[in-house]
C-alpha cells in the first residue's frame, strides 16, 4: 500500500501532524486520527543529508545541472535550509522534508524533499549515469530513468530485479504482476522478512484462514519503504489475455510501460508477452539462471518489428516447442527443449 505523504511544514501548520510533549505524534488524515508512539517514528533526513555530503565530494567532480550549477552547489544550499530548519525546530516538529505514513505498520517516517531523496541513491552512480559517447549529460540520463515505467511480470526473480531498479535507477513508475503467494521456499532467492511472507493476525477470522501475502503486493510494500515517492501499479491477479493490454498500455493515472522485464513461468504467457511487446515496439529483458550462471536475453523490439520472439530459434519453431510442452505435461525433456528454443544452447 502506497504511504500517505504530507509536506512537513504544511502538516505542522494545519495540524495534520502534531507532537505531544513526550514526542508522541498525532496524525489527522482520512480514515480517522492515529496516535503514533516514538517507537514507530523514523527520521531518514540525517541519513540522506550525510549520504549526499559523503558522495558529492566536491564541485569540481560533481554533475552539472541545466542551470549551470553543479549538483554539489545545489546540495550546499539545501544543507543550509536543513540546518536552519533544525535550529528553528519547536520540540519534535522540524519544518523540513516530507512525512510518509505507512498505515499497515503505523509508522511515521520523515524524508528529505523528493528530489534529494531520489538523488542520494544515484549520486555516486557515475558509470550508470554516464553516456559512453558523451552526447548526454548526467541530467539528461537522469531524466530518461526518471520517466521510465518498468513493467515486471513475475515477482520471484522479478522482485529482486525490482529492488535493483528502485535503488539504482529511481524511476517514478513501476508495474508489478504476479498472482502467486509467498511461501517459505521463496527465501532461497528473494529477500524476505516474516512480514513480507504473511499478514498479521489483526484481520484474521480463524486459524484456518489463509494469511499468505501476494508477491506483487509484498514487493510493492518493500519498494515503498525504499522510495515513498514511487508509484507502483500492482496486478495481484497476475496476467491474462484479458488484462495484458492494460498492463502494457496503462490508463488513467497509470502510464504505459516503456520496458518489460519478463520473469514468468508459464510458456504461453512468455510468448504472449513477447508478442505484445513486439507489437508495441517495447524492449524486453529476461534473466535465466542456468546452473551456477545467469543468461541475460535482451530483445530490442523497439529497434525492429522483425526481431524474433526469442534469441534461441525462429518464431515457428518456438511455438512448436511450446505446444509440445502442453501436449506432454510433466515431461522434462520436452520442457527443456522449449527452454533451449527460448534461450538457445550456448549457455
What does this protein look like?
The chain is α/β, with parallel strands linked by helices and 347 residues long. Helix 2 packs across helix 4, helix 6 packs parallel to helix 8 and helix 11 runs antiparallel to helix 12. The strands form three sheets. A six-stranded mixed β-sheet has the order 10-9-8-11-12-13, sandwiched between helices. It has helices spanning 8-13, 45-55, 71-87, 114-120, 138-147, 157-168, 194-197, 215-226, 244-249, 267-279, 315-327, 332-343; strands at 4-7, 17-19, 25-29, 32-36, 41-43, 98-102, 107-111, 149-153, 173-177, 231-235, 259-262, 284-290, 293-299. It is globular, with a radius of gyration of 23 Å. It is 35% helix and 18% strand. It has three domains: 4-120, no CATH class; 148-307, Rossmann fold; 313-347.
Task: List key phrases describing it.
alpha/beta, Rossmann fold, 3 domains, six-stranded mixed beta sheet, four-stranded mixed beta sheet
CATH topology of the largest domain: Rossmann fold
Q: How many domains, in number, for the residues?
A: 3
Specify Rg, calculated over alpha carbons.
23 Å
User: For the record, what CATH class of the largest domain applies?
Assistant: Alpha Beta
Topology overview:
Elements: E1 4-7, H1 8-13, E2 17-19, E3 25-29, E4 32-36, E5 41-43, H2 45-55, H3 71-87, E6 98-102, E7 107-111, H4 114-120, H5 138-147, E8 149-153, H6 157-168, E9 173-177, H7 194-197, H8 215-226, E10 231-235, H9 244-249, E11 259-262, H10 267-279, E12 284-290, E13 293-299, H11 315-327, H12 332-343
Parallel strand pairs: 5-7, 8-9, 8-11, 9-10, 11-12
Antiparallel strand pairs: 1-6, 2-3, 3-4, 6-7, 12-13
Helix pairs in contact: 2-4, 6-8, 11-12
Amino acid at each position: 500500500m502506497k504511504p500517505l505523504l504530507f509536506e512537513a511544514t504544511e502538516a505542522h501548520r494545519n495540524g495534520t501532524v502534531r507532537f505531544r510533549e513526550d514526542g508522541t505524534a498525532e496524525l489527522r488524515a482520512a480514515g480517522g486520527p492515529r496516535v503514533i508512539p516514538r517507537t514507530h517514528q523514523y527520521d531518514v533526513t540525517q541519513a540522506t543529508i550525510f549520504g549526499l555530503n559523503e558522495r558529492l565530494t566536491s564541485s569540481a567532480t560533481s554533475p552539472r545541472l541545466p542551470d549551470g550549477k553543479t549538483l554539489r552547489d545545489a546540495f550546499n544550499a539545501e544543507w543550509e535550509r536543513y540546518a536552519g530548519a533544525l535550529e528553528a525546530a519547536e520540540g519534535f516538529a522540524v519544518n523540513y522534508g516530507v512525512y510518509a505514513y505507512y498505515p499497515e505498520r503505523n509508522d511515521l517516517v520523515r524524508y528529505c524533499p523528493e528530489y534529494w531523496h531520489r538523488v542520494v541513491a544515484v549520486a555516486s552512480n557515475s558509470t550508470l549515469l554516464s553516456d559512453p559517447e558523451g552526447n548526454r549529460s548526467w541530467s539528461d540520463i537522469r531524466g530518461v530513468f526518471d520517466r521510465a515505467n518498468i513493467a515486471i511480470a513475475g515477482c520471484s526473480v522479478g522482485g529482486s530485479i525490482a529492488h535493483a531498479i528502485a535503488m539504482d535507477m529511481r524511476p517514478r513508475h513501476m508495474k508489478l504482476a504476479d498472482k502467486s503467494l509467498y511461501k517459505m521456499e521463496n527465501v532461497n532467492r528473494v529477500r524476505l522478512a516474516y512480514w513480507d511472507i504473511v499478514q498479521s493476525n489483526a484481520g484474521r477470522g480463524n486459524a484456518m484462514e489463509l494469511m499468505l501475502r501476494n508477491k506483487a503486493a509484498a514487493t510493492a510494500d518493500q519498494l515503498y519503504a525504499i522510495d515513498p515517492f514511487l508509484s507502483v501499479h500492482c496486478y495481484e491477479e497476475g496476467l491474462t489475455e484479458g488484462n495484458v493490454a492494460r498492463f502494457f498500455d496503462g490508463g488513467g493515472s497509470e502510464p504505459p510501460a516503456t520496458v518489460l522485464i519478463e520473469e514468468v513461468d508459464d510458456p504461453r504467457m512468455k510468448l504472449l508477452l513477447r508478442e505484445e511487446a513486439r507489437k508495441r515496439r517495447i524492449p524486453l529483458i529476461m534473466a535465466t539462471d542456468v546452473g551456477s550462471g545467469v543468461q541475460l536475453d535482451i530483445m530490442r523490439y523497439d529497434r525492429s518489428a522483425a526481431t524474433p520472439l526469442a534469441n534461441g530459434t525462429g518464431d515457428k519453431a518456438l511455438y512448436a516447442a511450446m505446444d509440445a510442452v502442453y501436449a506432454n505435461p510433466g515431461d522434462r525433456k520436452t520442457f527443456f527443449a522449449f527452454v533451449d528454443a527460448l534461450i538457445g544452447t550456448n549457455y
